[in-house]
Amino acid sequence: MLLKLGSSGEDVKRLQEKLGVEAIGKFGPKTEAAVKAWQKANGLKDDGIVGDATWNKLFPSSIPAASVSAAPTPKVEGLNLAGLKGHIPDTVIAQIPDTAAKFGITNNLRLAHFLAQCGHESGGFKAVSENLNYSADGLKKIFPKYFPGNLNESYSRNPEKIASRVYASRMGNGDETSKEGFKFRGRGYIQLTGKSNYTAFAKFIGEDTVANPDLVATKYPLASAAFFFNSNGLWSICDRGADDATVTSVTKRVNGGTIGLADRIKHFKEFYHALTK
After folding, report:
1. Which pTM was predicted?
2. 48 in a domain, yes or no?
3. Residue 164 forms part of a structural domain
4. How many domains, the chain?
């Protein structure tokens, strides 16, 4: 892997989407600046060149398609996982059996609702870590109360500083200087966020995601999302049916509103049809 000024292609576009830069597929000065800022914030040499070390830290759960294409589809009683082939990545399908067993995903209706929300929230099961690489203007739009005056300018394009501030002293995190806001930033397909949630998840799953929070992104992106469903009583809502009204009700609990509802409904119909055909 080597991306630098002048590179182009789908990998550049994916990189730009991850960094919050306009995804045009051409590695220009803006992309280089965003890469340098991200590298600096994440303890890497800030040379603006994306080699294996930078790429693997940006996309910790990336697995080349060739390495999973031949994987057999697991079987789970009551769930038609074979029907999902070609609709969601094989790496996601592989996580379903264990997740379903732990979190009571006992039928195709629940699974379709769950995957529809995960698919939307993660941009098609691609994002497993919160993108906090905001510009100064972006900070004013998204987090206005945390950046009065021109404070946003000194935080621009610095994910560690941004998360440490906006998530400070809430959700079990320490103050801004503790940097726990960044340590326990959103990870997983439905963005598990905050030390208290990481602690609760660790107790449930039996692995120390407080000491090693990256496990949520690399090993438990689906399980952490199911933990959210479980903790918020969403399975009983899923059981109401396969209509748009039920998808809307689930969406309101996940999103706090109905942002992206049309896409969530589209995903639900696709997955439910695939699971029940």
Report:
1. 0.73
2. yes
3. no
4. 2
Q: Where in the sequence is the domain holding 35, given as residue range(s)?
A: 10-58
Cα–chain center distance at 200: 19
Could you give the CA distance from residue 214 to residue 232 in angstroms, rounded to a whole number?
23
Q: Is residue 205 part of a domain?
A: no
Q: How far apart are the C-alpha atoms of 33 and 253, rounded to whole Å?
A: 37
Measured between its terminal Cα atoms, the distance across the chain in Å is 40
Cα separation of 47 and 35, whole Å?
8
**Is 272 part of any domain?**
yes
**Amino acid occupying residue 53:** A
Q: What are phi and psi of 85, to 5 degrees?
A: -55, 130
pLDDT tens for 62-119 read 443 333 344 466 667 789 999 999 999 999 999 999 999 999 999 999 999 999 999 9
Contact between residue 235 and residue 249 where contact means Cβ atoms under 8 Å apart: no
90-97: long-range pairs with CB below 8 Å, 24+: 91/61, 91/63, 91/125, 92/118, 92/125, 92/222, 94/68, 95/221, 95/222, 95/223, 96/222
What would the two tokens of residue 252 be?
A: 């309101």
Q: How far is 225 from 248, CA to CA, in rounded Å?
A: 18
**Digit-coded pLDDT (tens) for 240-264:** 999 999 999 999 999 999 999 999 9
Q: Provide the 3-class DSSP secondary structure of residue 223.
A: helix
